[in-house]
Amino acid sequence: MGTPRLLLVHAHPDDESLWTGGLTARHVDAGGEADLVMCTWAEGTVRHRELTDAVGILGMPRPPIMLGYADDRRPESAPDAPRLCAASFDEQVRALTAHIRELQPDIVVTYDALGIYGHPDHVHAHRLACAAADAAASTKLYHRAGPAWRVRSLYFATIPEWMMDLLAPSLFPEIPRDQLPGTPDSEIDVTVDVSDLAARKKAGVTAHRSEVDRSRAIAGFLSLPDDVQHKLLSVECYQRRDLVPGGCELI
Ligand SMILES: [Zn+2]
């Protein structure tokens, strides 16, 4: 088989760059196909425009696919749509199944089961991606949403313990360390060195200008010393779940 095809499923504009930007840039630089499904924010919003810029910086060949639901904490993200977590899960699985069957990815990338740090939209996106990857392979389920397609592996982005140890003192000084997330090394399946792509990944993050202005966590990250930022941007960690024997390796 040729180069595997990637589909990234994210909840919010900026997560694609923060958590999986290095993997995406590496993949497209190597000639691989990659698409992004974004669950929240509607087309035409400022965050959608920023996301389109970020996706271009990462080198993705096509604009993001917007599911158009509202961010759990930002009703202005999609004024005419329900919140991602409140809308019909079956309708969402059907919609994502149709995209999977059309795009035919070998690998679906999303958040881990905790949504990396517990944001309800991230947890929901994880569940949605898992359910749709399974549903897409069924010849009987959602049969009007295209012919069945079997995704070979799921990759779940996670934050390693050591990364949270680096971030916690300056970003979350008021929260006891044992109440913050962080995946131990023993539970991480794939560590991707993206140090050569750190600058591009940071440019992807800062393309989300309105979020850089609003988010205390992103502003805090960008105020860290350059060497610490570089260390944090240089590694991405994933848990891998194979849906067929042998699964699919990243390139
Ligand atoms: Zn998010």
TrEMBL record:
UniProt keyword Endoplasmic reticulum, yes or no: no
Any one GO BP annotation for this protein: glycoside metabolic process
Keywords: Zinc
Recorded GO MF terms: hydrolase activity, acting on carbon-nitrogen (but not peptide) bonds, in linear amides
SUPFAM superfamilies attached to this UniProt entry: LmbE-like (SSF102588)
Family matches, as InterPro entries: GlcNAc_PI_deacetylase-related (IPR003737), LmbE-like_dom_sf (IPR024078)
Signal peptide: none
Listed PANTHER family: N-ACETYLGLUCOSAMINYL-PHOSPHATIDYLINOSITOL DE-N-ACETYLASE, N-ACETYLGLUCOSAMINYL-PHOSPHATIDYLINOSITOL DE-N-ACETYLASE-RELATED
Protein name listed in UniProt: GlcNAc-PI de-N-acetylase
Species name: Gordonia alkanivorans CGMCC 6845
